[in-house]
Protein: Pirin family protein
Organism: Polaribacter ponticola
Amino acid sequence: MNTVIHKADSRGAANHGWLNSSHTFSFANYHNPDRMNFGVLRVLNDDVVAPGMGFGTHPHQNMEIISIPLEGDLEHKDSMGNVAVIKEGDVQVLSAGTGITHSEYNKNKDKEVKFLQIWVFPKEKNLTPRYDQVSIKEIEKENAFYQVLSPNKNDDGVWINQDAWFHIGKFSKGNPDDYQIKKEGNGVYAFILEGDVEINGEKLSKRDGIGIWDTKNINVKATENARVLLMEVPMTL
């Protein structure tokens, strides 16, 4: 088993006034040759957008872009004609394929929106762009991981063009859960959304991350009330 740990305060930081962003992996003006990606997981940005502000229309190509709101409402528009608002309890994926443009704005004028922006390299390039959004509130579980993303369109959560599975778990203090790797050769990057946990014996706190590979399962135990995002991804590009 191999591991890499990224503490919250070691992330790249960018404060643009309207946007305060923390980068687990190299992004924009933050470049760290030791933190370019974890397998096909290329970007993990922890974004806070000021009221009424946002990202103007910009292009993407051949990337799976996943947005997970943590607080507030994020308004999305794209060149495929999709207009939507995503909020806490939703997961959105934009499969950019041959190319799309989109914009993302904080819909509210009186409070911030906080969300994770995640980029995953696709399994196949130059496919037709696609949009998917689901509410995960109906599949939430207590003290167990539940799936919010997979490669299969008929499974729980959104589906993407990659052999990747995302799970979220909300745990009360003292509760554990085991996660079994779904595809041989994949690794798991765990990101602590809230609280304190132990993952395979490593102590982690809010916004810490740990990548684990060359193993068949991992164990997560909440040492305080906690919420954890697990991202299982192929380790080879």
